[in-house]
Design a protein that fits this description.
Elements (H helix, E strand, L loop, with lengths): L5 H16 L12 H22 L4 H9 L6 H5 L8 H11 L4 H8 L4 H4 L15 H12 L6 H7 L8 H11 L6 H10 L12 H16 L10 H16 L8 H6 L2 H5 L2 H12 L5 H10 L12 E3 H7 L4 H10 L6 E3 L3 H7 L3 H12 L1 H4 L12 H11 L4 H13 L6 H7 L6 H14 L3 H10 L8 H13 L7 H4 L8 H17 L9 H6 L2 H11 L3 H13 L1
Antiparallel strand pairs: 1-2
Helix pairs in contact: 1-2, 2-3, 2-5, 3-6, 8-10, 11-13, 24-26, 26-28, 30-33
């Protein structure tokens, strides 16, 4: 079929219109009148295809793929040619003839590498395919087997070494995969989802053989392959769903039988749906491989609504069989978690109660149906009147959306619908995304989820600081003071004091006094930092009347 056939011209026009409507501000095409841009691009693509085929002696199909799919790389050469529709084609052909282009740049864009990524793939000191034919030959071997040209970038980004392989070696490896009972289309889908199987030299790696053993059980032994549409996109999608479980840490070669038994989940559910379910359980912060095994062993969990239902925290714990004494202990230790919440927040509720591992073990031990059949015992179960009254006031305020978003953040980390949560809400400032960023910062620093929630309950203002400030305070606590994060459970207010003007000077001055034998008392950090300026000076005076003067000199020097 000619490059600009009558059947393809309409599609290409639509494609170019979409591309041109989203040109980056730095594009070189803005000097071309908008009405002419699509036609100019078509002419340039035709000239580029002819250049690669006729001048550079590339097979026409390769030249066509590169010409059609290197839209942005064309911008620069187009900008250097006078635009007149009657003469542009010849002018552009002449430009290409006398101004060599980096052929690899056009190639990499054509296979799906973005403009921002291309520089990382360009071979050094190479401009022409004739200087390094391996890349194009490898692409040709892959395309001949059935890989869509514009998806080869998936392989390149994941396993760039593939394009340094001998074309015949690639073809032999691809044909060997068919020995597992697969056809070309299914092999292409597998390779796109698991590019590592095409990497390496010599025989197939142990990991790759284990993967294909699993996939043979799923696609061939269970005949799942007969349910997949016979096109690359459908097979790539199925394989991406399977990859989700390996990404969780499930061992290749170990879950083939489980996937065979649960094969319908790969047909029934879209990828983004599976991701949401997996993310729900990953929020429990349990071993990810165990999450994968749970969902494969009990695939009915995937049909549960894990977002919309409302739960009563105590009612849910009772439903799952938490004992009476343990329930009383939970209510006493974590009153701010009690009340109602959304099912979507359940993982963080469990972490805030430090019951996430207990809950997950209940799921793994055959009690997963309890998650699916839970309902409130009655419409008014666990309703907190004070919470509802406060919520109504927020909804009638001047900035209800901002405040509700902050409230949803608190519910999202496990705080229940209760009056204590509303009191915490009064003291946290910032947008919900800022609060989440600060909370995550402290989690990443090493604080336990449950302990952090307790700290927020008693000292909510710790969330009112930027992450970088929190990081510096934690770093100083651990590195210079030599204290553990456990100390923050006792003294969370430490994070609220100014590091440079309060914490550092007071701690270092006390350390200096101790080193010089001027102070025998080992003051606690809270005593050093939280004491008012007046009482701090009085304490120094009680140690020795001359010490306050030394402090003021030291502090003045530190501020300078």
């Amino acid at each position: 079929m000619p490059f600009f056939s009558s059947n393809g011209i309409g599609f290409l026009g639509t494609f170019l219109s979409r591309k041109l409507s989203s040109l980056p501000k730095s594009s070189n095409l803005y000097h071309i009148p908008a009405k002419k841009r699509s036609e100019v691009i078509r002419l340039a693509q035709a000239a580029l295809t002819d250049y690669f085929h006729s001048t550079r002696s590339l097979p026409f199909v390769y030249a066509e793929h590169i010409g059609k799919n290197s839209f942005y790389s064309l911008h620069d050469p187009i900008s250097k040619v006078e635009v007149s529709l009657s003469t542009f084609a010849k002018g552009f052909e002449r430009f290409l003839r006398y101004h060599p282009i980096n052929e690899f740049e056009f190639f990499f864009e054509s296979i799906g590498i973005t403009q921002e990524e291309i520089s990382g793939f360009l071979p050094p000191n190479r401009f022409f395919f004739a200087e390094d034919g391996r890349i194009l030959n490898a692409a040709g071997a892959l395309w001949s087997f059935g890989f869509p040209w514009n998806k080869l970038g998936i392989l390149c980004k994941a396993e760039a070494s593939i394009f340094n392989k001998d074309a015949d070696d690639l073809s032999r490896r691809l044909c060997a995969f068919k020995g597992y009972g697969l056809n070309n289309v299914s092999v292409v889908g597998i390779c796109l989802a698991f590019p590592f199987v095409l990497g390496g030299n010599g025989d197939l790696s142990v990991e790759a053989r284990a993967l294909f053993d699993d996939l043979k059980r799923v696609f061939v032994d269970s005949d799942l392959g007969s349910l997949v549409e016979e096109n690359v996109n459908a097979w790539y999608e199925i394989c991406r769903k399977i990859r989700l479980f390996y990404d969780l840490g499930c061992a290749k070669g170990k879950i083939g039988e489980l996937m065979r038994k649960s094969r319908n989940i790969f047909i029934q559910y879209p990828e983004d749906y599976l991701v949401r379910k997996i993310d729900f359980f990953c929020s429990l912060n349990v071993r990810k491989a165990d999450i994968g095994l749970l969902l494969l062993e009990s695939p009915e969990i995937l049909s549960f609504d894990l977002e919309a239902p409302v739960i009563s925290v105590m009612g849910f714990l009772k439903h799952f069989g938490l004992g009476l004494q343990k329930s009383k202990s939970v209510a006493r230790m974590y009153p701010y978690i009690l009340g109602r919440n959304k099912m979507a927040n359940l993982p963080h509720v469990m972490r805030a109660l430090d019951l996430h591992e207990w809950f997950f073990s209940m799921m793994r031990n055959g009690n997963h149906q309890l998650l699916g059949n839970y309902v409130l015992s009655h419409p008014d179960e666990d309703l907190d009147k004070d919470y509802i009254d406060a919520l109504e006031k927020i909804q009638s305020s001047k900035t209800p959306v901002h405040t509700i978003n902050k409230l949803n953040f608190l519910h999202g980390i496990g705080f229940g619908e209760n009056s204590l949560t509303m009191k915490v809400l009064e003291h946290v400032h910032g947008t919900s995304s800022e609060l989440q960023e600060r909370f995550d910062c402290l989690l990443h620093a090493g604080l336990e989820f449950s302990n952090l929630c307790t700290m927020i309950r008693f000292m909510a203002k710790i969330l009112n600081q930027k992450p970088e400030i929190l990081e510096r305070k934690v770093d100083f606590l651990i590195r210079e003071m030599g204290l553990s994060l456990q100390y923050l459970h006792v003294f969370p207010a430490y994070l609220c004091f100014n590091l440079e003007n309060r914490i550092k000077p007071r701690y270092r001055f006390h350390a200096w006094l101790a080193e010089n034998g001027l102070c025998a008392t080992n003051y606690s950090l809270s005593s050093m930092v939280a004491t008012s300026d007046k009482n701090f000076i009085a304490r120094l005076y009680s140690i020795h009347p001359a010490i306050p003067k030394l402090w003021f000199e030291y502090y003045s020097h530190q501020k300078d």
